[in-house]
Design a protein that fits this description.
By secondary structure, this protein is of the alpha/beta class. It is built from 16 helices and 23 strands. The strands form seven sheets. The chain has a six-stranded parallel β-sheet with strand order 2-1-3-4-5-6, sandwiched between helices. Strands 17-18-19-21-20 form a five-stranded mixed β-barrel. The longest helix has 28 residues, at 548-575.
Length: 576
């Protein structure tokens, strides 16, 4: 077309065609002189590619098998349960057989190098087996641009309520990344809603995340990069979640977060206020276990915390990490307390809550730790004889200030870890309890499948005979044997067995949280309200609303179809 024709305003799409252009019938007759060139292809390879990678428009979502693997803390485990529940509610089958799955959902932990190594190896194995992959947890949230994560779908720690969207797009062959934060009027929220469907790993235990993130800036911590600053859930939402759990047969609740003691400081409340509200709704025979709390945030609530830990439906148990008994090391860690603060907390609680179990964490070989620093830590363990002690060899995590400090030699770190472990195993914390009569809550089966696992008032592990009538019940036992990490109890023949649940527990693998509001499609996704959905009675499968990613695709498809229709009409008119 001459360039002059571009100077005039086009009033209609037909103005694009000038009288000098060839007509459709002219182009048709020219085709007789065109000789098509045949390109040979590897038929076997083509068929194999077709079989392994069907076109995305031929993939029906909601029917595939998904294998979920979670590493790390109870907060991470709770996230994994929520993701499993949503996928199952949508129709996906959650399988425990990794090789049988179509997609692997890998929920990672970034606390230590070995956990990330397992995560990386699992990605490699999934790729070797041609599995679809979705990544979750703290590793991809903190460092999404790592080389081994390239091209893979990622769902952020605050976006787990959108796992169905990410899985669907991944199954279709797309790569999706959702890493944003949830906010309400500029204020960061605790994360996804608490009333989402979930599949509890143990139907008798509900894990509730009371907040995400923390107020600290520990120099060794990578989790801070993923979970961010403190963001707490409102008390009423946490209480509602607890009530719903008990209605579904739960008999034990774990409160979890990166720092339970800091709960509420961002929303004008505190941990004791939450706990007093929760104990009001705990039925007789059920128990509440508190999560980890750092020393600074419990010091100002010691009196109230002692009262709560003495409550008959709250385990007299608290996890307070000390990390080191050297003030100079704690200063380099930026832990915001000294050893005297830790001792004050422990001594006060041991006095006011007789028999309380104090669990703690220790890092061996932090940068700059001297032999004298380490010996101070050894003396602390010898003095308090912690019945539960988590000993960790220091691993420098990329991107943390501690990784740039002068490191303690690897062999020294390893030796200190062994030495402290030897001290820990030198004492027996439960020998003096042989002959006691205790009430224990039975919640699970032991790893060797020989016993049921129960916990007494102080959250000490008690193994009892495998009587199905005991599971989920409060049973009275006589302690007749003890080990380093457990006691064994013989049920008292004429003792009363308490049934704490107000309803029958869900079956293993059954979806929790399919509330009436959820089924009727009230609320909207992505906020602290009920998700919209409805139940397809013909297929007995939960049909969720069209995800936002799909809404965008649908809009683009509608526009594209309209343009195609317009072009088709234009060419038909020209041809005629």
């Amino acid at each position: 077309m001459p360039s002059a024709s571009c100077d005039t305003l086009l009033g209609d799409i037909e103005d694009i065609v000038s009288h000098e252009d060839s007509k459709p019938q002219d182009r048709h007759f020219v085709r007789k002189d065109v000789v098509p060139k045949v390109r040979r292809r590897n038929t076997q390879k083509y068929l194999q590619e077709e079989e392994n990678s069907p076109p995305s428009d031929s993939t029906i979502p909601g029917i595939q098998k998904i294998w979920i693997r979670t590493w790390g803390c109870s907060h991470n485990n709770s996230d994994g349960e929520y993701m499993a529940g949503q996928l199952a509610a949508y129709g996906y089958k959650i399988t425990e057989n990794a090789s049988d799955a179509d997609l692997w959902l890998l929920n990672s932990c970034t606390v230590k190098n070995p956990a990330e190594d397992h995560f990386r190896n699992s990605i490699k194995k999934a790729q070797e087996e041609n599995k679809k992959i979705v990544l979750a947890g703290c590793v991809p949230q903190a460092q999404p641009r790592q080389d081994y994560l390239k091209g893979l779908s990622i769902i952020g720690v605050q976006q787990i309520d959108r796992v169905v969207e990410v899985v669907e797009e991944t199954i279709k062959g797309h790569s999706v990344r959702l890493l944003g934060q949830k906010k309400d009027n500029g204020r960061r929220l605790g994360g996804a809603r608490l009333d989402l469907p979930k599949i509890r790993k143990n139907p008798l235990i509900e894990i509730i995340s009371v907040n995400t993130g923390c107020l600290n800036a520990c120099t060794y911590c990578k989790t801070k990069h993923a979970r961010g600053n403190l963001a707490s859930y409102p008390i009423d939402e946490l209480v509602d979640r607890a009530k719903q759990s008990f209605q579904e047969g739960v008999c034990e609740i774990w409160l979890t977060s990166e720092d339970t003691g800091a709960y509420g400081r961002d929303i004008g409340t505190n941990l004791p206020t939450l706990l007093w509200k929760l104990v009001e709704v705990i039925p007789e025979g059920a128990m509440l276990r508190l999560g980890m709390t750092n020393p600074p945030y419990i010091l100002e609530h010691l009196e109230e915390m002692a009262k709560i830990l003495n409550h008959p439906r709250v385990y007299a148990f608290l996890h307070i990490p000390v990390q080191s008994a050297s003030d100079s090391v704690l200063m380099e860690m930026k832990r915001e307390y000294c050893v005297a603060d830790f001792k004050r907390v422990v001594d006060f609680l041991k006095e006011k809550v007789p028999g309380i179990t104090i669990a703690t964490d220790i890092i061996c070989g932090f940068p700059g730790e001297t032999d004298q620093d380490f010996q101070e830590t050894v003396k602390l363990v010898e003095e308090y004889k912690f019945p539960s002690l988590f000993i960790n060899q220091f691993y420098p995590r990329p991107g943390t200030p501690a990784a740039k400090m002068e490191q303690v030699p690897a062999q020294v770190k390893k030796q200190r870890t062994k030495d402290l472990s030897r001290v820990f195993h030198s004492y027996s914390p439960y020998n003096h309890k042989i002959g006691e009569r205790q009430q224990v809550l039975v919640t699970e089966e032991s790893f060797d499948s020989k016993f049921y696992v129960a916990h007494n008032r102080f959250y000490e592990q008690v193994l009892v005979p495998k009587n199905p009538a005991f599971m989920g019940k409060m049973v009275e036992v006589d302690i007749w044997e003890s080990g380093k990490h457990f006691m064994k109890g013989q049920p008292v023949s004429d003792a009363k067995v308490y049934t704490p649940s107000i309803s029958k527990p869900l079956a293993k693998g059954e979806v929790s949280g399919l509330t009436k509001d959820f089924r009727n499609g009230l609320g909207s996704s992505g906020s602290h309200t009920s998700a919209a959905s409805q139940c397809d009675s013909a297929s007995s499968r939960m049909v969720l609303p069209m995800p936002r990613l799909h809404q965008d695709c649908a809009l683009r498809m509608s526009v594209g179809l309209a343009l195609l229709a317009l072009l088709f009409a234009f060419f038909v008119k020209v041809y005629n």
